[in-house]
């Protein structure tokens, strides 16, 4: 693979793709195409612009960057929720706008982190959305355990992951971590505009925190809790929904124990956290 070739050699693909081939949409978790982004984005909306964020590293494939993290909080009853930034009003472009942002580990954690791939139009990304921030199990997940042991729409609980040290399925190795598909800030909204989340509980997360340094260590301490890590699960390439240990063909692309997008074989490492930047899209007008 040459230095500028975005696809792994085994894929047999060229680095330029015309159109969207296939799809990784899971029922109950909304996806958006590039067409949605073009037609639904309101350039006069709120937020957007160059945005610095912490996210998981993109290893290879055509995706331009990693997917953003969602800080995990566990309440006193053991239910998992995503930390939503503090809401305030600022003057932006000569007008007063409501924003959700706060400083964590030297970076402005903001709703802008999630304003790409059409998510900037979703009800849940609005700072004042009437949501409680709990992660809830998604419909039709790819994991047998999730289908059999919990109900769609139920709040995610730490006890559901008690076997995370040994859990495995037919994809990759056992003991890497236990995953779940969830939604965030998406109660009572249509499936196509629910914010999809990949949750993983793994001993590797604790090791990451122990070995990290500087602002990355501080960020991991703030964003991970009891081995949990959460990612907004929208591939930064064509906005499909990737998965950790979800697709059998991931093994052909060295992605069996990583997050793999079967649309165009982008692979992300959920256990490698980096600081990156991108141009976030504005939310539509309130």
Task: Write a structural description.
The protein is mainly β and 286 residues long. It has a domain at 22-34 and 55-83 and 131-275. Helices cover 11% and strands 29% of the residues. The protein is built from 4 helices and 14 strands. It has helices spanning 34-40, 144-149, 203-211, 214-223; strands at residues 49-60, 69-70, 72-74, 80-82, 87-92, 95-104, 107-110, 135-137, 178-184, 195-201, 228-232, 243-244, 259-261, 266-280. A 5-stranded antiparallel sheet has the order 2-11-10-9-8, with no helix packed on it. A 4-stranded antiparallel sheet has the order 1-14-13-12, covered by helices on one side. Strand 3 (72-74) and strand 4 (80-82) form a beta hairpin. Helix 3 (203-211) packs antiparallel against helix 4 (214-223). The longest helix has 10 residues, at 214-223. The chain is globular.
Global shape: globular
The largest sheet is:
5 strands, antiparallel
**Proportion of residues in extended strands:** 25-35%
Helical content class? 10-25%
Order of helices and strands: HEEEEEEEEHEEHHEEEE
Mean pLDDT: 87
Count of helical regions: 4
How large, in whole angstroms, is the Cα Rg? 18 Å
Number of strands: 14
Spans of at least 5 consecutive residues whose pLDDT stays below 50 are 1-43
Secondary-structure topology with pairs:
Blueprint: H1 34-40, E1 49-60, E2 69-70, E3 72-74, E4 80-82, E5 87-92, E6 95-104, E7 107-110, E8 135-137, H2 144-149, E9 178-184, E10 195-201, H3 203-211, H4 214-223, E11 228-232, E12 243-244, E13 259-261, E14 266-280
List the defining traits of the structure above.
mainly beta, disordered N terminus, 11% helix, globular, single chain, 286 residues
